[in-house]
C-alpha cells in the first residue's frame, strides 16, 4: 500500500516546498550589491520594491491565470494611503505600510467581486478601465494628490531607530530588502500550500475545478485580494523610500511594465519576477545611458524582446533553463 | 425506496429551441442506469442540468429529497453528485497525481489551507495515491496528463470522479474516442464501481448498455420516450421505431 | 433655451464626428478579434502609420488629401497582409496573454520606427480649402471638417453594413465569427478570409488615422498607445466581431467622451471609463455581443 512508501511522484509533491541551496543566491546578490555598488542604491532599492510588486502580480497571473492590465491600481492606492498619511502628520512608516496594505486589500476585495465575474478580454478591459479611472481621478484631485508635480513627505525613523536616508539610501535599502524577504517567503508559502495548488488548478481548467467542488469565484477573489494587499505594500514602500509621490504610481505604464516584467522573467515560477524586474531595469538603464532616448532605443529593444519572448521563450527567460535543469536532475525534459 | 436523485418537470430552452422537455427521472441508491438516445437528443444537456452547469427554465432537481435546483455546481459536488465529461476536462499541464490530489484536497476541505505546504499533510497525498491504485493508474502518477495516451486520460476522468467519493455518478460517454483495444479497461473500471454508488451512464455502444444497465431511459429530442428494464426497452416497438431502428438494434455493436 | 440647443448641437456634431472616427478605426479590430479570437493591440499602430503616411504625402509631396487617404489605406492594407503572413500567424493559436505581449511588442517597435523616421514632434496637416471653415445650417454653423467626417463615416458604415449582409464574403465572415469550426466544415477558407479581413481592417485603421489627425489633436509617436485603450473599449462594449455593435458602441462612447470633456475639461477623461466599467459589468459580452458559452 501507498502509505508505507510514497511513490516518486508523491515524494516530489510532498517536498516541493523545501528550500534549495540556490535559493540563497538572490539574497546574497542583494547584499553584495549594497556594498559593491553604493552608487546604484537608489536603483537597487527600486528593483527590490518592484520585485515585491511583480511577485504579487505573478500570484494572480502566473498561478491563478487572472491576466490584469490594471495592477497599478493597488500599487498606487497603497502608495497614496502611506504618503497622504505621512503628509497629514502620521509619520510612523510601518503603520503607514499597514494602512496602505489594508486600503489596497479592500479595493482588491471590492473590485474583485465585480471584475472577476468576467473572463478573458472583458476581464482585461475591466482591470485596465479600473486602473485608468483611478489615474484620471488622481489627476483631477491634484489638490490632494499633488498631480504630476507630486508631494514630498517625511517619515519618522523605522522602528524609531533607522532614519530614512534620501542621499545614500542606507536604511532605505534594508527596509525594502526586509519587506521583499518577508513578502517573498509569504508568497512562496502560499503557492506551495494547498490553496496555491488549487490556484494552479483554476489556471489549468476552471471548469473542472467547479466540477470537483471548488468555489472558483470565491477562490479567485481571495487570491486577488491577497495580491492587491501585497501590491499595496510594495506601493507604500516605493514612495516611502523616495520620500515623494506623483500620480505616476497609478499610470497605465506601471501596470503594463510590471506585467511585461513578470512574463519576461517567466510567470508562475516566483523567481521569474526577480529575473524579469532585474533584466528589465538594468537593460532600460543601460540602453538609455549608452544609446540615449532619441530615437527611443529602449522601446525598440523592449519590443523586440517581447516579440522574441513570445515566439521563442513562451515560458520566459527562466523557462529557457528548464531543459538544462531537467537534465541536471536526470529527468526527461 | 426513495430516489437519491430525482427530477420533476425539468425543462430547458434556448430561445425557441427546447433542449429538455418536462423530464421526470429518478435514480435509486445503487442504481445502474443507462441514458440513451440519438445524437442531439439532449443527453449531455440533461447531465448539465443535473449537475448545475445549466440552470433549468422550469422544473426542479432533488437530491435525497432536497430541492437543489438553485445550488451551484460545486455545491452539488459537495453533496455527492459527481460527473465525468464527454470531452476530457482535465488539468492537462499537471501530473496525474496532481490532478487527483487537487480533487482529494477539495473533498477533504483542505484546499483553503493558506500558510502550510502540501508536504505538511501527507495523508492527503496518500489518499490521492490510493485512488490511483484502485483504478490502476498509479504507475502513471508522475506523468504529465498531456503526454498520456487518450485511453489513460479517460481513466483519469473516472479517477477524479471517484476521488470525490460520489453517491451519484454521472458518466458521460466514458469510453468515447478510446480505441477498442483499450476500452475494456474503462469498462472494467466501471463494472468495478462500488455497489452503493448510483450510476447513470450515457453510452452509444448498445453492448455496453445492455450488459451494464438495470434500467434504461431513452431520450429523444429533449423528452423521455421510454424508460424501463433492458428487456422492456428492447421489446418496445416505439423505441425500435424511433431509435434502435436506425442504429440497427441491440447486439450489432456500434450504432 | 437657444443656448441649450446650441450646446446640444455642438456635442452631437463633434461627438458623432468623433464616434465615426472611432468606428472606422475599431471595426477592423473587432472583426479580427471575433473571427480569430486574436487580440491585436498593435491595431492602433496601423492607424498611426496611416496617419503619418497621409501627412507625409500631403505636406512634402503635395498630393491631394483625399488621394493621400486612399494611398494610405492601400499601403497599410498591403503592409497588414505582410505582417499577418510573416509574423501574426505564428501566434494565432497561443493564449491571449501571448497575443497581448506580442502585439504590445510590435507597438513598442512601431513607436521607435516612427520616431526614428519622422521625429518625435507632433505632426499636423493642412486640410484642403473645401474642408476648412464652417458650414451654416441656419440654426448654427458647424465646422466643414466635422460634417465631412460624419458624411464620410456614414458612407463607410453603410458600405460595410451592405457588404457584410449582402455579399458572399460578408456572409462568410458572419458565419465564421459565429462559429469558426462549423464554417470551416462548410468549406469556408477561414484562413484566407482572415487575411482579407486583416488587410481591410488595417487599411480602415490607416484611413481613420489619416482622417482623424485634426480631431485627435495631431499625430505623435505615442499615438498607438494613447488611443489603443479607447479602440479596445469600443470593441469590448460593442461585442467582439459585431459590426453593428461596434458602431453603436462608438456612437455611445464617442458622444459620452466628448460630452464629458466638454462639460468637465479638467476631469472629463474619467467618464468614459466609468461608463465602460458599468456596461461591461452589466453585459460582459458587450452591448451587442453573443452570450458567453
Care to describe what's here?
Chain A has 333 residues and is an all-alpha fold. Chain A is built from 16 helices and two strands. In chain A, strands 1-2 form a two-stranded antiparallel ribbon. Chain B is an alpha/beta fold. Chain B has nine helices and ten strands. Chain B has helices spanning 43-51, 73-78, 96-107, 122-134, 150-163, 180-191, 206-212, 230-235, 237-244; strands at residues 5-14, 17-27, 32-36, 58-63, 66-67, 81-83, 168-172, 198-202, 215-220, 223-228. In chain B, the strands form two sheets. Chain B has a six-stranded mixed sheet with strand order 6-7-8-3-9-10, with helices on both faces. In chain B, strands 2-1-4-5 form a four-stranded antiparallel sheet, covered by helices on one side. In chain B, α5 (150-163) packs parallel to α6 (180-191). The model of chain B is unreliable at 247-255 (pLDDT under 50). A two-stranded antiparallel sheet of chain C has the order 1-2. In chain C, α1 (2-36) packs antiparallel against α8, α2 runs antiparallel to α3 (65-86) and α3 packs antiparallel against α8 (190-211). Chain C has one domain (2-282): ABC transporter involved in vitamin B12 uptake, BtuC, CATH 1.10.3470. Chain C contains twelve helices and two strands; from the N terminus they run ααααββαααααααα. Chains A and B meet through α1, α8, α9 and α10 of A and α2, α3 and α4 of B.
List keywords for this structure.
heterotrimer; B: about 260 residues; alpha/beta; Rossmann fold; 6-stranded mixed beta sheet; 10 strands; C: about 290 residues; mainly alpha; ABC transporter involved in vitamin B12 uptake, BtuC; two-stranded antiparallel ribbon; about 70% helix; about 0% strand; globular
Summary, kept brief:
Chain A is an all-alpha fold and 333 residues long. Chain A has helices spanning 8-15, 25-36, 41-63, 72-87, 93-115, 120-140, 142-145, 170-192, 194-204, 206-211, 216-242, 252-265, 271-290, 297-312, 316-319, 322-328, and strands at residues 151-152, 244-245.
Amino acid at each position: 500500500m501507498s502509505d508505507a512508501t510514497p511513490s516518486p511522484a508523491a515524494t516530489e509533491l510532498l517536498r516541493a516546498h523545501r528550500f534549495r541551496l540556490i535559493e540563497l543566491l538572490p539574497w546574497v546578490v542583494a547584499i553584495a550589491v549594497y556594498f559593491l555598488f553604493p552608487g546604484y542604491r537608489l536603483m537597487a532599492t527600486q528593483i527590490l520594491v518592484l520585485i515585491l510588486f511583480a511577485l504579487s502580480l505573478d500570484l494572480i497571473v502566473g498561478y491563478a491565470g487572472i491576466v490584469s492590465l490594471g495592477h497599478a491600481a493597488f500599487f498606487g492606492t497603497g502608495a497614496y494611503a502611506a504618503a497622504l498619511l505621512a503628509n497629514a502628520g502620521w509619520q510612523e512608516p510601518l503603520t503607514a505600510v499597514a494602512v496602505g496594505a489594508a486600503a489596497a486589500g479592500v479595493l482588491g476585495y471590492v473590485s474583485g467581486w465585480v471584475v472577476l465575474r468576467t473572463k478573458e478580454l472583458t476581464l482585461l478591459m475591466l482591470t485596465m478601465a479600473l486602473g485608468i479611472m483611478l489615474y484620471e481621478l488622481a489627476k483631477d484631485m491634484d489638490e490632494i494628490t499633488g498631480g504630476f508635480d507630486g508631494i514630498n513627505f517625511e517619515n519618522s525613523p523605522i522602528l524609531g531607530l533607522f532614519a530614512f536616508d534620501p542621499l545614500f539610501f542606507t536604511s532605505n535599502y534594508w527596509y525594502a530588502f526586509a519587506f521583499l524577504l518577508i513578502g517573498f517567503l509569504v508568497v512562496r508559502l502560499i503557492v506551495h500550500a494547498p490553496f496555491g495548488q488549487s490556484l494552479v488548478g483554476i489556471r489549468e481548467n476552471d471548469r473542472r475545478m467547479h466540477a470537483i467542488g471548488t468555489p472558483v469565484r470565491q477562490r479567485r477573489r481571495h487570491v486577488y485580494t491577497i495580491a492587491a494587499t501585497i501590491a499595496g505594500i510594495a506601493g507604500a514602500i516605493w514612495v516611502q523610500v523616495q520620500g515623494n509621490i506623483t500620480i505616476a504610481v497609478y499610470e497605465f505604464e506601471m501596470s503594463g511594465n510590471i506585467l511585461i516584467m513578470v512574463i519576461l522573467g517567466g510567470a508562475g515560477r516566483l523567481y521569474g519576477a526577480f529575473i524579469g524586474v532585474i533584466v528589465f531595469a538594468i537593460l532600460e538603464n543601460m540602453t538609455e545611458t549608452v544609446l540615449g532616448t532619441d530615437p527611443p532605443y529602449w522601446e525598440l529593444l523592449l519590443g523586440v524582446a517581447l516579440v522574441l519572448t513570445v515566439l521563442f521563450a513562451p515560458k520566459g527567460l527562466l523557462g529557457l533553463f528548464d531543459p538544462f535543469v531537467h537534465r541536471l536532475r536526470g529527468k526527461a525534459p | 425506496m426513495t430516489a437519491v436523485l430525482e427530477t420533476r418537470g425539468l425543462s430547458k430552452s434556448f430561445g425557441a429551441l427546447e433542449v429538455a422537455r418536462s423530464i421526470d427521472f429518478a435514480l435509486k441508491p445503487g442504481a445502474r442506469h443507462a441514458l440513451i438516445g440519438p445524437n442531439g437528443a439532449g443527453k449531455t444537456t440533461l447531465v448539465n442540468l443535473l449537475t448545475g452547469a445549466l440552470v433549468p427554465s422550469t422544473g426542479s432537481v432533488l437530491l435525497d429529497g432536497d430541492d437543489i435546483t438553485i445550488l451551484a455546481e460545486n455545491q452539488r459536488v459537495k453533496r455527492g453528485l459527481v460527473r465525468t465529461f464527454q470531452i476530457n476536462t482535465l488539468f492537462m499541464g499537471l501530473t496525474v497525481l496532481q490532478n487527483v490530489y487537487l480533487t482529494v484536497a477539495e473533498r477533504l476541505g483542505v484546499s483553503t489551507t493558506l500558510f502550510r505546504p502540501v508536504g505538511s499533510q501527507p495523508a492527503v497525498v496518500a489518499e490521492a495515491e490510493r485512488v490511483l491504485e484502485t483504478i490502476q493508474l498509479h504507475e502513471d502518477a508522475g506523468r504529465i496528463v498531456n503526454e498520456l495516451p487518450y485511453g489513460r486520460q479517460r481513466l483519469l476522468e473516472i479517477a477524479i470522479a471517484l476521488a470525490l467519493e460520489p453517491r451519484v455518478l454521472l458518466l458521460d460517454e466514458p469510453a468515447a474516442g478510446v480505441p477498442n483495444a483499450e476500452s475494456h479497461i474503462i469498462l472494467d473500471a466501471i463494472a468495478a464501481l462500488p455497489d452503493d454508488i448510483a450510476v447513470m451512464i450515457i453510452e452509444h455502444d448498445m453492448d455496453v448498455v445492455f450488459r451494464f444497465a438495470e434500467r434504461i431511459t431513452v431520450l429523444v429530442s429533449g423528452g423521455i420516450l421510454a424508460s424501463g428494464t433492458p428487456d422492456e426497452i428492447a421489446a418496445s416497438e416505439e423505441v425500435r421505431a424511433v431509435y434502435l431502428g436506425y442504429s440497427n438494434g441491440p447486439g450489432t455493436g456500434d450504432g | 433655451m437657444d443656448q441649450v440647443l446650441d450646446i446640444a448641437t455642438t456635442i452631437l456634431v463633434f461627438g458623432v464626428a468623433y464616434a465615426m472616427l472611432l468606428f472606422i478605426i475599431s471595426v477592423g479590430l473587432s472583426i479580427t478579434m471575433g473571427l480569430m479570437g486574436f487580440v491585436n493591440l498593435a491595431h492602433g499602430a496601423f492607424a498611426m502609420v496611416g496617419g503619418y503616411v497621409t501627412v507625409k504625402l500631403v505636406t512634402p509631396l503635395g498630393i491631394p488629401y483625399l488621394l493621400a487617404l486612399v494611398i494610405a489605406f492601400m499601403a497599410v492594407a498591403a503592409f497588414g497582409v505582410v505582417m499577418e503572413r510573416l509574423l501574426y500567424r505564428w501566434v494565432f493559436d497561443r493564449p491571449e496573454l501571448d497575443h497581448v505581449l506580442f502585439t504590445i511588442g510590435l507597438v513598442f517597435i512601431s513607436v521607435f520606427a516612427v520616431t526614428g523616421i519622422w521625429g518625435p514632434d507632433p505632426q499636423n496637416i493642412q486640410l484642403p480649402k473645401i474642408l476648412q471653415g464652417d458650414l451654416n445650417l441656419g440654426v448654427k454653423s458647424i465646422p466643414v471638417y466635422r460634417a465631412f467626417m460624419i458624411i464620410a463615416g456614414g458612407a463607410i458604415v453603410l458600405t460595410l453594413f451592405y457588404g457584410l449582409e449582402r455579399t458572399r464574403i460578408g456572409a462568410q465572415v458572419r458565419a465564421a465569427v459565429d462559429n469558426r469550426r462549423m464554417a470551416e466544415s462548410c468549406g469556408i477558407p477561414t484562413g484566407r478570409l482572415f487575411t482579407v479581413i486583416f488587410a481591410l481592417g488595417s487599411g480602415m485603421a490607416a484611413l481613420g488615422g489619416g482622417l482623424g489627425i485634426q480631431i485627435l489633436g495631431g499625430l505623435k509617436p505615442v499615438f498607438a498607445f494613447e488611443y489603443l485603450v479607447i479602440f479596445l473599449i469600443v470593441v469590448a462594449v460593442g461585442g467582439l466581431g459585431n459590426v453593428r455593435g461596434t458602431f453603436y458602441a462608438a456612437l455611445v462612447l464617442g458622444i459620452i467622451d466628448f460630452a464629458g470633456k466638454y462639460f468637465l475639461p479638467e476631469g472629463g477623461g474619467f467618464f468614459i471609463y466609468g461608463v465602460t466599467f458599468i456596461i461591461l459589468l452589466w453585459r460582459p459580452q458587450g452591448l451587442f455581443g453573443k452570450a458567453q458559452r
